[in-house]
Design brief:
Layout (H helix, E strand, L loop, with lengths): L37 E6 L2 E7 L6 E4 H6 L5 E2 L3 E2 L10 E2 L2 E9 L2 E11 L8 E3 L1 H4 L4 E6 L2 E6 L1 E12 L5 E12 L19 H13 L39 H16 L3 E2 L7 E7 L5 E5 L2 H5 L11 H7 L22 H6 L2 E2 L4 E4 L9 H13 L15
Length: 398
């Protein structure tokens, strides 16, 4: 048997060692779509890919990432369990570190981070609940994205008692951190504060400005602010007696609506339960849009209230001052009266009665004789540094 390729005896052409070996190689590239919960994290000015994982209790860093970021790591072995066996750990950590991780400009503060071998996870870092559930962090889902935001954090100094080894009680000050969830920013599709003829660019620009000062806007009673510049008191004529009235009779439908409105006021803290001897009746007033406003009839209380004196703005003077202006802005406070607190004594005098319940206001309601004066005084305090000043700009910049 002779090979027809090389002429050597002992093998066939199909087994000839000189036959060219041709291998077909297919190059496979793994192209992964960006995970919607994948973010860019920053530690010590070093950027890395981080996966936000609400199912992970711990925050995990690859070993090489810890070195790259210059993190001080303490040797620490801890078994971690994943899906599968609850007896045999899926992996073991090689260390731990306390790290401040910044994602989307949000910093949760120092967080205990576990350091793991490079081959146990895909992303450089997995951000777990010990970072996400920090009081300083708020997050919510918008579409397919997980949006991070800073919570409004309030630090309070409180006293705590500890027991030393000698069984003696010592007192020390502890900083207690309380977090309030940040509000979701206003989406452009929901932005209805601009005329419909405005361009998309103008709407987007104003939307960005509103979101920058989003804490100054209220879209519901729960979001109303409360001024610290003033508070309203109700001073009565000497010898006055508490106003005590029976509730006005209403229809069954109005009675249900009144009960719902009062419940909302109490839920938002604008009204609280009362044992005040005062009791003014309430009534529903129909507004132009067909809705009803619940008003308290304070006429008897107003008759025995001392009148306050403060200069009120004259409408004609206000209009004359705008005569030569070209650009006008109208600022309308959201329930402006309800952003002014009452003194404890005044709150008791605002007590009202319905057919089903009673309550007293914590904020200044409509209907009080001194409300207009108090509101005007507050506006003067707010605008005192701007009144009489003209801020000019060249019209070519508009």
């Amino acid at each position: 048997m002779t090979c027809f390729r090389c002429g050597t005896a002992g093998h066939m052409v199909t087994n000839c060692p000189t036959r060219q070996q041709v291998s077909i190689v297919a190059e496979q590239k793994n192209v992964e779509a960006r995970h919607p919960y994948q973010k860019v994290g920053v530690v010590n000015d070093c950027e890395f890919v981080a996966l936000l994982d609400t199912g992970s209790h711990f925050t995990l860093f690859k070993s090489t990432l810890a070195i790259k970021c210059g993190v001080s790591v303490r040797p620490f072995v801890k078994p971690l369990y994943g899906v599968g066996s609850t007896v045999v750990p899926a992996l073991e950590t090689v260390g731990e570190a306390v790290i401040e991780i910044v994602i989307d400009g949000v910093n949760a503060g120092p967080v205990v981070t576990l350091i793991v071998p490079d081959n146990v996870q895909g992303p450089d870092a997995i951000i777990g609940r010990n970072w996400l559930d920090s009081p300083a962090i708020s997050y919510y889902k918008s579409g397919s994205q997980l949006v991070l935001a800073e919570a409004n954090v309030v630090n309070k100094l409180v006293d705590a008692t500890v027991v030393t080894l000698g069984n003696e009680f010592d007192s020390l000050h502890v900083v207690s951190t309380e977090g309030e969830l940040a509000r979701a920013p206003l989406d452009l599709s929901e932005f209805k504060f601009v005329d419909g003829d405005a361009s998309v660019a103008a709407r987007s620009s104003l939307s960005d400005l509103v979101n920058e000062y989003w804490d100054c806007f209220a879209t519901s009673l729960e979001e109303l602010g409360c001024t610290s510049l003033t508070s309203m008191d109700i001073l009565e004529v000497t010898g006055s007696k508490p106003v005590m009235c029976k509730p006005y009779k209403t229809t069954a439908a109005d009675r249900v609506e009144i009960e719902g409105i009062v419940s909302d006021w109490k839920r938002c803290g604008l009204v609280v339960e009362t044992r005040s001897p005062y009791a003014s009746p309430v009534l529903l007033v129909k507004q132009c849009a067909g809705k009803h406003r619940l008003c308290v009839d304070y006429r008897r209380l107003n008759k025995q209230t001392l009148r306050q004196h403060f200069p009120l703005p004259d409408m004609n003077e206000q209009l004359n001052s705008l005569g030569s202006s070209k650009l006008f802005a109208q600022l309308d406070l959201a329930s402006g009266y309800l952003q002014i607190p009452l003194t404890d004594e005044a709150a008791a005098k605002t007590a009202f009665i319905t057919e089903d319940t009673t309550g007293q206001f914590t904020r200044m309601p409509f209907g009080l004789s001194g409300a207009v004066v108090e509101f005007t005084r507050l506006m003067r305090l707010c605008w005192v540094h701007y009144m009489g000043k003209l801020y000019e700009t060249t019209w070519t910049t508009w």
